[in-house]
Write a structure and sequence with these properties.
The protein is mainly alpha-helical. It has a domain at 29-68. The protein has two helices and two strands; from the N terminus they run ββαα. Strands 1-2 form a two-stranded antiparallel sheet. Strand 1 and strand 2 (34-35) form a beta hairpin. The protein is elongated, with a radius of gyration of 18 Å.
């Protein structure tokens, strides 16, 4: 894995190329599998606070619906 701390990072937006453009402020993040909805974002935010059994149950439900 590359050492990110030693990588030279541009100090101004003009050197960041496309990153200077940014996304629309209200744009939902996109993944390879689609857009992250508000509901999914709330699940992601809460994930670390859920009891292990609850996380296991959620993963089992998702897996069952995906045929896994």
């Amino acid at each position: 894995m590359a050492d990110l701390q030693s990588a030279a990072m541009p100090s101004n937006p003009e050197e960041n190329g496309r990153l200077a453009e940014g996304a629309a402020p209200d744009a939902a993040p996109e993944t390879d599998n689609g857009t992250i909805t508000d509901e999914l974002a709330s699940m992601i935010d809460a994930w670390h606070t859920l009891p292990p059994d609850t996380r296991t149950a959620i993963l089992a439900i998702v897996g069952a619906t995906q045929g896994r």
